[in-house]
Amino acid sequence: MGSMFRSEEVALVQLFLPTSAAYTCMSQLGELGLVEFRDLNASVSAFQRRFVGDVRRCEELEKTFMFLQEEVRRAGLVLPPPEGRLLAPPPRDLLRIQEETDRLAQELRDVRGNQQSLRAQLHQLQLHSAVLGQGHSLPLAATHADGLSERSPLLQPPGGPHQDLRVNFVAGAVEPSKAAALERLLWRACRGFLIASFRETEQQLEDPVTGEPATWMTFLISYWGERIGQKIHKITDCFHCHVFPFVEQEEGRLTTLQQLRQQSQELQEVLGETERFLTQVLGRVQRLLPPWQVQIRKMKAVYLALNQCSVSATHKCLIAEGWCATRDLPTLQQVLQDSSSEAGVSAVVHRIPCRDMPPTLIRTNRFTASFQGIVDAYGVGRYQEVNPAPYTIITFPFLFAVMFGDVGHGLLMFLFALAMVLAENQPAVKTAQNEIWQTFFSGRYLLLLMGLFSIYTGFIYNECFSRATTIFSSGWSVAAMATQSDWSDTFLAEHPLLTLDPNVTGVFLGPYPFGIDPVWSLAVNHLSFLNSFKMKMSVILGVTHMTFGVVLGVFNHIHFGQWHRLLLETLPELVFLLGLFGYLVFLVIYKWLCISAASAASAPSILIHFINMFLFSRSPTNRLLFPGQEVVQSVLVVLALAMVPVLLLGTPLFLHWQHRRRSRRPTGRQPDEDKSRILDSSDTSVAGWGSDEEKAGCPGNSEEAEFVLSEVLMHQAIHTIEFCLGCISNTASYLRLWALSLAHAQLSEVLWAMVMRSGLRMGREWGVAPVVLVPVFAAFAVLTVAILLVMEGLSAFLHALRLHW
C-alpha cells in the first residue's frame, strides 16, 4: 500500500556483467523490467558504440519485416498476434532469422513480379480481344481535300482517281476519360483525313496494378497517307493508348480472336498457379513474422541497453548502472546469478550511494492504471512525493457524477463498463484494433466507478431519465394545506398555481429521507430551487477539494524533513484559503441550519455579506447572520492579507539565513569522514565500495551547491501569485459543477418532453399506442445514448479532468 500512496524507494545499483553472459543477463532483466539503466557512454557517439553493428542488423531486419507486413496487408490478410511468451533469441539465431527473412522476401518479390507481368500480359490480351470483338464496322466513305462529298466511297473502284491510295487502320483502346480529348485532337491534327469510331467495352476488365474493374474505350481509325499515319501514332502514344494490329479480312480477325482467347485461357491457368504459390508464401509469412517481430524488437532493445554500459579496463566484463526498487534487489541478484551461471563467472550487483534525484516509481494494476494515467498526464511527481492517484479514485468519479447525476444514465454507463470488465480476459476483446474501443477498454474501471457514482448522485437529485421517483413518502402534505386554507372552488378556478406554505401546520412534515423530495418535480420554482442548491453545493465541494490538496502537501513536508515549510507555506495557505472561502462555506452551512421557514422571507444575502467583507462596509437592508459578524469578517480579511507577505518572503529569507549559517561552519572535514557518512546513510552500498564504483561516482554534496537568493525569490513569487489568484479563480471554476449539472438535467427534460411525452400523447389520441411507441422509444434510446451519454458524458469528463488538474 505504501507504493500506492507514495512512490517506492529506489536505489542506484551497479552491475558487473561478464562479457560472455552480458546478453543473457540483459535479456532476463528486460523481461522482468526491474532496472532503469543510465547511459554511461553519453559522450560517445551512437555510431562508435560497441554493439552498433548488431543494432544495425536488427534495424535492417525490421525494414524487411515492414516489407513483408505490407505484402500481407496488400493481400487482404491480417497478421495474428504472437502466441505465448517470446524471449529475445540468442545472438547465434540472428543469422538464421535473417537468412529465412531474406529468402521469404526474395520469393515474395519474384512471385509478385511474375504476377504483375502475367496480369499485364493477360490485360493486353483481353484488350486486344475486346478491340477485335467490339464490332467496329469498316468505314465506307471519307472526306477529301479535292471537294469529294462525305457519301463518296473511300475505296474508289479500279481506274478511279484514287486507285493508288491504300486505306490503313489503327485499332486500340484508351481510358474513357481521355477518349473525348483523343478524338478531338485527332480530328484537328489530321484535318479530317480520317474516320474514327469509338465504342465502350461491354465488360469491365481488371486493372493489372490496382486489381479493380475498369471500363475501356476501343477505337478504330481508318486513314490514308503515310504522314497522317505518323501523326496518328504519335498522338496515340501521347495518350498512352494500347495499339494492336488490325486485320481487315473478317476471317483473319476471327482466327486471331480465337487465338487470343486461347492464349488468355492458358495465361489465366498460369496466373492461378502463381497466385496459389503466392498464397502459400504469404501463409508462411503469417506464421513466422509475428514471433520474429517480437524477438527482433527485444533483441534490439537488449543491444541498445548494452550500448549504455561501459567496458572494464580488462575488457572481461561490462559495467552498467541503473535504478532499481529496493524491494526488488534480492530478485535482481538472483536473476543475474541464474543468467550468468552457464558462463562460469557470476554477475555481481552493488548498491552505490548517489545524491541524484531518483526516478519516480509507482506500481499500478489494471484497476489503478487509468487513474494513475490521469495524474501522470498533468505531470509526474518527484521522488517519494505523495501520489494523488489513490484519492483520485474517489474524487474524480464523484465530481463527474455531480455533473452527470441521473440514475438511468449512470446505470447504462455502469452496465457498459461492467460488460467490459467481465470480458476483459477474452482475447478478441484485448486484441481489438479499433482506437475508440481501446480508449474505452483501457478506462473500463474508471467508467465503472463513474457510472456507480452517477447512480448515487442521481438518487440524491431524484432523477431517472429526468423523471422523479417516489421511493419514500413526500414530506409535503397538500391535504393539510387544503383543509387549513380558503381554497374554494372560485379560488381554484382563478388560481391555476397553488402554493404550499411550510409555515402552515401539517404542510411540511419533515425532510425527505434521502435526496430531494419528489414533490419538487411538480413545482414551478423547481429550477430556482435546484439552482440555489447546486450552486452552494459546488462552492462547498470546491473549497473542500482545494483544502484537501493543500493538506496533502503537509505529508510531503514531513517526509522530506522540511519543517519550515509547514509554518511558512502550508499554514499561510490554509489561513488564506479558509479565512476567505472557508468562511463563505461556513456562512452557507450556518444559513441552512439557523434560518427557518418562518424567517426565510427576511433571510440575509450571503453574497452581499461576502462583498461587504472585502469592502469593510455594511448594508443596512441586509441583516447580520450572527452577532459580531462584522468584526469576524474584518479580522479574517486582515489575517488573510497578512499571510501574503509571509508566503512570499518567509521561505526565501529562511533559506538565506540557513545558507549563511552553514557557510560560517568550518569546512575541514576529512574525506574519510565524508565517505563513512555516505556509507552509513540510507543509500549504503550492499557489497562495499570498490575502485570501479569510485570510477562511476556521483556528484558531490548538495550543500556545496550555490545558493542564489534572487532565483528563490522569483520561484516563491510565482508560487504565491499562482496560489492567491488560483484560490479565487479555482473557486469560481468549481461553479462548473453547478452549470453542467443543470445543463444535463434540463437536456434530459427537453429530450423526454419532445420525444417520449409526444409519443405517449399520440398513442393515446390515435388509440394505437404499441405501434407509435416502438419507433418513438427507439428514437429516444438513440438520442439518449448519442447526446446524453456520449456527448454529455465526454463534456463532464473533461470538466472533471480540468478541476483535478
UniProtKB/TrEMBL annotation:
- The UniProt transmembrane annotation reads 398-423, 444-461, 507-527, 539-558, 570-590, 597-615, 635-655, 766-791
Domain of life here? Answer: Eukaryota
Keywords of the record: Coiled coil, Hydrogen ion transport, Ion transport, Membrane, Transmembrane, Transmembrane helix, Transport
Instruction: Point to the regions of Basic and acidic residues compositional bias.
Output: 670-680
Q: Topology with regard to the membrane?
A: Multi-pass membrane protein
Gene Ontology CC entries for this record = vacuolar proton-transporting V-type ATPase, V0 domain
Give compartment(s).
Answer: Membrane
> Keyword Ribonucleoprotein: yes or no?
no
Segments for region (Disordered): 664-700
State the coiled-coil residue ranges: 247-277
Cross-referenced InterPro entries: V-ATPase_116kDa_su, V-type_ATPase_116kDa_su_euka
The signal peptide stretch is none
Q: Which GO terms describe its molecular function?
A: proton-transporting ATPase activity, rotational mechanism
Pfam families tied to this protein: V_ATPase_I
Has UniProt tagged this entry with the keyword Transmembrane?
A: yes
Family according to the record: Belongs to the V-ATPase 116 kDa subunit family.
Q: Which PANTHER family match?
A: V-TYPE PROTON ATPASE 116 KDA SUBUNIT A 3, VACUOLAR PROTON ATPASES
Q: What does this protein do?
A: Essential component of the vacuolar proton pump (V-ATPase), a multimeric enzyme that catalyzes the translocation of protons across the membranes. Required for assembly and activity of the V-ATPase.
Indicate what this protein is called per its UniProt record: V-type proton ATPase subunit a
